[in-house]
User: Fold this.
Amino acid sequence: MENINDYILHPRQVADKSSKETLQKAIKLALDVETDALRLNTQTFNTNRYRAVKRLDDYEELKNRARLIKEKSIKNLIPLISKVTKAIEARGGKVFYAKTKEDATAYIKKICLSREAKLVVKSKSITSEEIGLNSDLEKAGIEVAETDLAEFILQVSKEQPSHNVAPAIHRSRESISELFKRNFKTEKKLDTGEELTEFARDILRQKFLKADIGISGANFVAAKEGSILLVESEGNIRLTTQLPAVHIAIAGIEKIIPSKKDFGVFIELLAASGTGQPLTSYTNIIEPPLDLPVLNLNGRNDGKREFHLVLIDNGRMQMRDDEELKEALYCIRCSACMNSCSNFQTVGGHAFGGECYTGGIGGAWTVATTGSLEKARFAELCTGCSRCIPNCPVLIDIPRLNTTIKNRLIKADGGASLQKLFFGNFSKLGKYSSIVPTLTNFIVSLSISKLLMEKIVGLDKRRPIPRFANKTLKRQYKLYRKSNSIQISDVFKKGLVLFADVFTNYNNPQVGMATVRVFDKLGIPIKLSKIIEDGRAAQSQGLIESARQSAIKLAGYLEEIIDSGKEIIVAEPSVLALFRYDYKKLINNDYLFSKLEKHTYDPIEYLNKLLNHSELDLTGKIEIKKLNSDKIFYHAHCQLKTIGAGNTALEFFNKLGFIVEISNVECCGMAGSFGYKKGYYDISKNIGNELIKQIKKVATRDSKKVILASGTSCREQLRDELEETIYHPIEYLEKILK
Assistant:
């Protein structure tokens, strides 16, 4: 195992993950050293967040209001900058607009030198990391003391932050204890969190009392009043902003909102989304310069308070003009996206991040603030699972941002790699492979074939390759209908259409046929659609234009089906999410998208809807004891959760009398093609093992429990490690339906 210090002690050397090689090194090191602490800490935040948002009766309304405030603020940035400048200068403060990070650091350094500052205390500020402030001040002979506990830890260890809210989230208590003992002379045990905090507090207290200047960030800046919102858990921001005579606040221009009356929305969302608290421990709303006595003990101040607000552009205005990336400016840096991301839970920001910004949201910020598309190559770690979208308090479509970056990287690289073309054109692969499926399956199972595919298209040789069906769904349906004609009942006259997505058609026709047979048994007429590429595979690789062309063509066909009075059933969750979410941007036709959103369903979701409306009676039609079990373990597909259908199988089978236990793992880790790629196989398996452990624990407790998983890739991941049969919910329903 490599020593993590080879990575973290010189973060800038490997923070630039602009090449695939350095990205892979960062992933390996993170998997070797950081995963256990990362997963525990991020999942704790995530669990607390779920509890916290449940306590907010108006959670969805709050998110919509926050989104609207941010949209209007970014649109009106220029007048807001002017307004906040006037408000602060009217009180005697100073405002400096920094076009570049060099402008910002030069201004701050000038203030420090003019005051003959020896010591600066600083609260946590991602923006200060962005502009490299500490390094510039230290080169000028000015000591900078990080006063946030996590930042203090990282300053001692010379590490790069790996998370927005909890920069040292990758470190365990034991590693922090060892770090302090190695760097400070102490006889204290430092075994508990309390002991570590007390030790750091005693050191930092002396810094506060002697500091010449305090530097803070800003969660939000109110333009009308010139007010600054600062939320914290440790009280160090209050000391930073109130003890020294000089306070410098650093804020990206995107932090400006119209008025402090808007603070309330974000105070509620920040606490719940970031740490799962009802309210952050300390909420500060200040209007500097403060009318308070100077309390520090350095003996070099004249008793007069001085305040500077440094507003930083550094690529933000350019991002605002970028129609595809500007949405990132709405980010309030709560880290909910990181905590809910399985890949981030596994490798953290040292791998899933750039020079400063981390996680799925970090790619767009890296492009904007560094001016380098290459430095955002870590965006490839975003699988597009979309779990972050409903967890984001301002509804940012983070997967779309990363798909855009992937697309731009393809263009910058001179075209798509063989790997992207291979995975992005699955429909063609399926079409030709299914001509002689037996021969195809035999060839791809050979060791030499796997080795060649790994070298040529990056398909990891350790991953079993799904078999192509001997008969496609289209063929099986045709044969089935020869002896099973559609029966139109009095209740269901117009009927349904099962969309034959390429995954179900070529690899999982049994799921499609189970859907057809179930609806036939229930007297609901259902037909099979044409086989038309939907664009899912292309989009996942960043091939946006190809995805858009497929989407536009297919959407027109689906509209004809809907206009004929039929509803559309989609067995593959990722394709259903494509229709009900991604097509909004791909087809750019709100009227047509609205039709798709309202008239496409997961098969169990549709049946559950009928039950809820008393349009379907399953009394006497279910044989629970047919498979000798009334207990189910269910893992919902990520994108089903995003579109609001993640719990419908749970609800449906509960109504049928089953006891359903659901997975508490965010994602299976497979994420379609992601788990097949050589560079990401280890991450995929690491995440998958968490789900496997939960299932095995359940099996130990109850060996008769049936395992259901909605997604194709979910079932593939589980089948790699489990001997049990993994059913799609509709397959299991067929087995228990009389």
